[in-house]
Amino acid sequence: MDPEIVTIVSGLPRSGTSMMMQMLRAGGMQILTDQMREADEDNPQGYYEFEPVKQIEHNHAWLEDAQGKVVKMISALLRHLPATYHYRIIFVRRRMEEVLASQRQMLMRRGEPTNDVSDEKLSEIFSRHLQQVEAWLDAQPHMEVLYVDYHHVLQDPLSEARTIGQFLGQELDVAAMATVVDRNLHRQRR
Known about the structure:
This protein is α/β, with parallel strands linked by helices. The protein has one domain: P-loop containing nucleotide triphosphate hydrolases (Rossmann fold). It is built from seven helices and four strands; from the N terminus they run βααββααβααα. It has helices at 17-27, 63-66, 96-110, 119-138, 150-155, 157-168, 174-179, and strands at residues 5-11, 70-72, 86-93, 143-149. A four-stranded parallel β-sheet has the order 2-1-3-4.
């Protein structure tokens, strides 16, 4: 893998990005994470987050250290990535109903309100957001994107791992990647 490329795992919150980070780590890639957000009932294998990512709009100095590594970033922050780097983005897609159900379950566990906005309204907002982000990504010459379906990963992790390795241009341990996919964590099904 080209050391100057920054690999990003992205998608909506609760779409399977932590699972993808776990796969890439098992495959042999170096991940950029600070472990500040600990594993919990919603993500028992961990979140694989890196706190400085959340400040990308105002500070992207950390990208220097992200070259040749993988970092997780929610889709809403992708627009703030500077054009001074080349990115390979693995964008995880998951059924909207499941994303919303998973988000609701996580909020309930935390004791936070879940009925501020209806699922129908959230689905409309997220769907419009995804359309805008995907159109924007398509127009970025310094970004390559692979869209990965969460359910395809669950159904055939070995094949998906091979596709990801080809996209990244890297020999990954695809067998190890496939073994970390835990279908038992697919709890919000629709």
